[in-house]
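thread: overnight batch results

M.L. [08:02]
morning all. the overnight job finished for the chain we discussed friday. pasting input first so we're all looking at the same thing
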Amino acid sequence: MAAAKDKGAAQTQVAKLIMALRSQGVTDPGVLNAIEKTPRDLFTPDLFKERSWEDSALPIACGQTISQPYIVGLMTQALTIEPRSRVLEIGTGSGYQTAILSKVSRLVYTVERYRTLMKEAEARFAILGLTNVITKFGDGGEGWAEQAPFDRIMVTAAAQDEPVKLLTQLKPNGVLVAPVGKGPVQSLRRYAGDGKGGFKVEALCDVRFVPLLDGVAREL
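M.L. [08:03]
and the structure it wrote out:
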């Protein structure tokens, strides 16, 4: 009886979140369905389990965060992913954003600089049976040249300047979404390739992301 009550409460929380995302402009059916069907509590530390379905960012290990669902939805929607898309994600983190991407694309290549986070995310992908996610422990700023070019690229940490190296790993008509800026508040930007080597750049909104750091992390 208690389990059924808990399940009902969780379903109510999920429904409220989806309604909130719609009201904020996340309207893509595929993106909303992916968020609805992905158990965010699986990616949330035990200390914050009760807040799993809140529309807020939450702390995870290694000083990182699991992004606010609105930002996850907004960035995923902005990529305009197609079913056959190959997507590069810079910054695996908890793996929550990765899981969302996996539900709307053919393949997701994800790079993480913290080995601890990478291993924990891989375990979650296995629990969910995600077979279209390919992981790499490495420097996200370098991208994944061996697998380039990509149809879409998402950066989940703030680049100080325009992510030129990552843009070179994008197909001519591809799309890259990334927070860009040096301060505590950055500009979320969408780079859409024009097919001729140039990009149309659109500022979507102000965001707060951890910085995109060079190299891989040294962990104890």
